[in-house]
Automatic annotation (TrEMBL):
Family the UniProt entry places it in: Belongs to the short-chain dehydrogenases/reductases (SDR) family.
Domain of life where this protein originates: Bacteria
Keywords: NADP, Oxidoreductase
Source organism of the structure: Emcibacter nanhaiensis
Protein name: SDR family NAD(P)-dependent oxidoreductase
């Protein structure tokens, strides 16, 4: 995609951080933009900074399938068909998996994974039917590659978003719809304050919130990358139809180290019996199909 002007964009988590940066960048390109967020006060504040007749704000819990569908109808009725979708909303829970409850799982996966699924299930059939092409950007994280003990559920959700995005890219390429996955590092945002939007029906938390740690995270996030810088890199990647969007170059060496460990863990091929030869023949065909899918998604 080379030209954004005149298209309608839908950005979840759009009232702060990366989402708000995307909204500004898209408006500058001549898009009509709907920003969706669960915080009404943040929406109101964001709209005041986006003094533009081509933007609207909608309150949305991305974990709600019904709410997502109603919101999509409202946006498209007012702004026209959405052809740019940014599944960006996300929350974090800074604790390990073994310290977590079912409510913890349902909350984090409900927003970070099912929120993306709901965006796809809501808008992709409409985009395909209209035949106008478009692009989808799913926000994962460098946590979709790099893990520590915490935040365990967050890592799980972001790994899933990365895999889902790659599969979706190949299936939508013939429709002229691009798909990218954004893997940022530290950004100036309010994700450290996720507990403030935790729903009451999922309140059973494995460990109490560590307010001192939350305060520390708030300070750390002040040194995060500016959302406008991330947004500019996202739009450049859409123009070039790139799948991976790595906004923070400081992770390159670490990721290389992890990939080197993965490759080093493979055993040598050794001698092949008949079963192994048949297996490898099957894998040869699968490998060629995968290579072809990647090439077609790049437009080659």
């Amino acid at each position: 995609m080379k030209d954004f002007a005149g298209r309608t964009a839908f950005v979840t988590g759009g009232a702060n951080g990366i989402g708000l940066g995307l909204a500004r960048a898209l408006l500058d390109e001549g898009c009509k933009v709907a920003i969706a967020d669960i915080r009404e006060d943040s929406l109101e504040a964001a709209l005041k900074t986006l003094d533009n007749r081509n933007v609207m704000g909608v309150k949305l819990d991305v974990a709600s399938r019904e709410g997502y569908a109603r919101t999509a109808d409202e946006v498209e009725e007012q702004m026209g068909p959405v052809s740019l979708l940014f599944n960006n909303a996300g929350i974090n829970l800074f604790q390990t998996i073994d310290e977590s409850t079912y409510d913890d799982w349902d909350w984090v996966l409900g927003v970070n994974l099912h929120g993306v699924i709901n965006g796809i299930q809501t808008f992709v059939p409409r985009m395909k039917e209209r035949g106008l092409g478009g692009h989808i950007v799913n926000t994962a994280s460098m946590a979709s590659f790099l893990c520590g003990p915490a935040p365990g559920i967050y890592n799980c959700s972001k790994f899933a978003v990365r895999g889902m995005s790659e599969s979706l890219r190949y299936s939508l390429a013939p429709q002229g719809i691009g798909v990218s996955v954004l893997c940022p590092g530290l950004v100036k945002s309010y994700i450290y304050a996720s507990d403030s939007v935790r729903p009451e029906n999922l309140a059973n938390r494995g460990t109490p919130e560590n307010q001192a740690f939350t305060d520390q995270l708030a300070n750390v996030h002040q040194y995060g990358m500016e959302p406008d810088e991330v947004a500019a890199k996202v739009l450049d990647a859409i123009r070039a139809n790139r799948f991976y969007i790595f906004s923070h170059p400081e992770f390159k060496e670490e990721l290389q180290e992890v990939f080197d460990e993965i490759i080093a863990a493979f055993p040598p091929m050794g001698d092949l019996d008949d079963n192994a030869k048949q297996r490898l023949e099957f894998e040869k065909g699968r490998r060629e199909s995968y290579r072809k899918a990647r090439q077609e998604a790049r437009g080659e």
